[in-house]
């Protein structure tokens, strides 16, 4: 399979210009906030000024009386949904919680929690009307830190939340939503075999995905109840389904047209605005537009979970791991559902070890409900394990890559999370890292190097595609996943490859929810894998139909007709190209079109390695990244440029989270840095070029060998950077971000 | 935001008349601070008085006597002038640190000063080079030294009908040079955690004969630290002198702890910035001396 | 009370009405439907709304609409000619210098302004010039390479 896969491609693996590129470099592409409708109103959301409070009353009357105000709502307009987890297609969602997060009922649980909304003829009037809404609150004690939230005397957010997963049922409500544990072997015996045991506790701050496009939508509700939504999201079918739940409206009454999405990274995998805009549109009879401010994005959309990761690992003198024990505690924000268990399942995935355990705790706090952020839970969990492995390597005087190679999983090994690995490229990736010139660059005084591994399962799930061949032979490839980072290019490349036609003849489109079969959202790195597979299947149906049509035209048996270079071929006949066959479609059975849908299995796990060199200013504690190398097994790089782009972008997000990015709360639980000035994402001048190395160990579970690419890049940078800083200064920093102040304090305490 | 009127006076007299006649006026130059403050509700002016159309207020003039910066001259109109950077390298570095390239096209040194942020980058640099403000109001003209201009965070000495028109910075002598350094976690787009501006003069033997040291983000306003200058005057910036300079800068600091840094960290690092800036200024002064020979 | 403003956008005479405190990005996007200019932060920190105002770069979220009176504004919509992309635009496409594309209009306007001033910038000069243009997708690598390549293309075309 491997050789066949890597050698057989004509267009896959080329660095073609993306089909949607011109619209995006000229400003023609329409993102969420770029849509307008005639007669449109603007809506704004009134948000809680308190981190935790009971709402005693809301009076909308003064707002409603203002000229230009057409509708105002509270959560009263939404059905009170039953609590409990429901399958949403990608993971489970509690729609009661989701509805309460869209607009608070009874209590506000974080500063910025939506309380009411107003639609008016202008944004200005809507803002003024918000000021006229009277809300009475009974302020309650709050907690924003997960460590504090777990304490017995902490303010409890949800009186009906009893920890799930305990050996004995919980006697009292608490902020710990669930506890889950996975164990293998005999931990005590494993630690008894160890020659060295290292134990550390790591703290990771809340970080935001930091997409540049704020959430935005336009919604129009007709008199007959038909809801039309134009929105930027990671999945317009998700927007349809979630909005349907929150509104209590049938899925069939909602059509969602995807806008271009200006970044998501997991943060646009739920709804905040669309149900609100729909409710306001239904009441006003006018289309309603909503665009979040940057401050709203920081305060009230889902950032990545803060975490506490406790790790204890034992190894023999030769580096063989004997026992691994960890606790992953992640902050869900105001409602349960942090990715603690997911992260815990990733952290051991790269290694074999007979005796190990993870405990995952899902904890709620008075902060915005967290959302996915690239490999949700994995970067936090990997930080702990990878830093401790580096410390073991240092203590044993073993090269940290050798230590990992000694313990690395390979084909046939059973993963910690249960599955048996098929072909994987972890060892190849580690070997490539070890051979890389950046790993051998001499380090100057004050510099340090760190290496780390990252893992993500990758997702398959449901995808659909339709291919229409036009007269003239051009091809429309229609899929239903928002193109977040160049996936149209991947779809076009795969369709061209499967059809054997020139890439320029392919026009990829992202269709609305009525115009293509169902698609789970763009996330978990599933789009190129699963939607690409649907495209391949649809293309193969086109090829099959073309062979049949050619056979009919030639009056030969279809088995004698083959397909080569975009044409039907049969001995004794001139080949019939796709264009020629399309021109004869009317006499060979009608339009040349095919659709394919699948629930894709076999997503190949992805492994990445980060190498990082830093230099530290010993007088100020400032850390500079002087070299960063991202290596990753991507299965097959459909478009190497956009694959590298995922690796580079993930690396820089990880660097930012390691060094500067964090949510800072004041004593009242208010976010102090809800803007790009003080939420310090890396800027261009902070960084060197990111060196990338693509490893291609084809995924045997995909026709073209594809693995997801977008998640592993953010898993390894945090431990690589942290280790590099610790090596540079000879300390053991365990709290992120590694701000200059923290680094200087560590230097001063040496 | 509910601004009811926008004025664009064509002369200083017209501007000061508007300021005198109406309360609730806010002067607008580049707007890069003001529009953010209006957006987040920190400032809610009823009237905006855009001074950029006043003749000469965006002019930048370098003569043998010194540099005159029109109060509303965009930063970029200063930083793109190699002759100004050659004469006042530290000041130009400070100006170049305000925001991004986009901000540089709008923001002004005068605005940076009038906004009176304790962390403003240009203010310590201006103090170090002895800049003087030219202020015009209904009652006439007055000159204010930059170190006396700001009176607290967000507060300056201007009366309601007064306008900052320009800043004048005397030309440094042959053995003189300046430097400004700030500390920020990122390379760009940050507010100074602390900053330090130093100008100094060397005598022909290489001894510091005069110095001015100013620190930013370390007190309610940028401070001229005479003890820090005294620590290096008469020295050749040997280690003990630099250590004394850093200690004096730290001792003069009375910073707050906030999301950008603790008081302790600021106190420590302001000394680091001051000594590094002094060393750079000294190196530049030496280069000038060598070039003059 | 609305104010009448006469200005020039991409060399076209334009008139509009705005309130005294309306920002230029609001006027461009919501009044004039020039939605190529993006609004990412409204505080001058992201650069998505970058325009050229009388020859200098500016964040249009930090300019008032009324300040456009008598001025000359260039936006992303005016960068390409009907027949051809600007070298920076083409280079971004050739180097995969965009992923989601929301920062791209601002990057294009800012990078073009750099190359008009400096035909042969160093990597460091490009990085500092673009420090006010946040990109969260790419890690900047391919953007920087694309701008350096565009500079070379323009130099070769000029020689």
From TrEMBL, chain A:
Coiled coil: none
Keyword set, alphabetical order: Molybdenum, Oxidoreductase
Keyword Electron transport: no
Superkingdom of origin organism: Bacteria
A Pfam family of this chain: MoCoBD_2
Domain Aldehyde oxidase/xanthine dehydrogenase a/b hammerhead positions: 26-141
Transmembrane parts of this sequence: none
Family: Belongs to the xanthine dehydrogenase family.
Name of protein: Xanthine dehydrogenase family protein molybdopterin-binding subunit
Taxonomic source organism: Candidatus Litorirhabdus singularis
Automatic annotation (TrEMBL), chain B:
Name of the protein in its database record: Xanthine dehydrogenase family protein subunit M
Entry keyword annotation includes Flavoprotein: yes
Keywords assigned by UniProt, alphabetized: FAD, Flavoprotein, Oxidoreductase
Superkingdom, natural source: Bacteria
Domain FAD-binding PCMH-type: 1-174
Pfam families linked to this entry: CO_deh_flav_C, FAD_binding_5
Keyword Nucleotidyltransferase tagged: no
Database matches in PROSITE patterns: FAD_PCMH (PS51387)
TrEMBL record, chain C:
Source organism of this protein record: Candidatus Litorirhabdus singularis
Gene3D superfamilies in the record: 3.10.20.30, [2Fe-2S]-binding domain (1.10.150.120)
Keyword entries, A-Z: 2Fe-2S, Iron, Iron-sulfur, Metal-binding, Oxidoreductase
Matching InterPro entries: 2Fe-2S-bd, 2Fe-2S-bd_dom_sf, 2Fe-2S_ferredoxin-like_sf, 2Fe-2S_ferredoxin-type, 2Fe2S_fd_BS, Beta-grasp_dom_sf, Diverse_Oxidoreductases
2Fe-2S ferredoxin-type domain mapped to chain residues: 3-79
Protein name as annotated: (2Fe-2S)-binding protein
Signal is among the record's keywords: no
Short name of one Pfam family: Fer2
Top-level lineage group: Bacteria
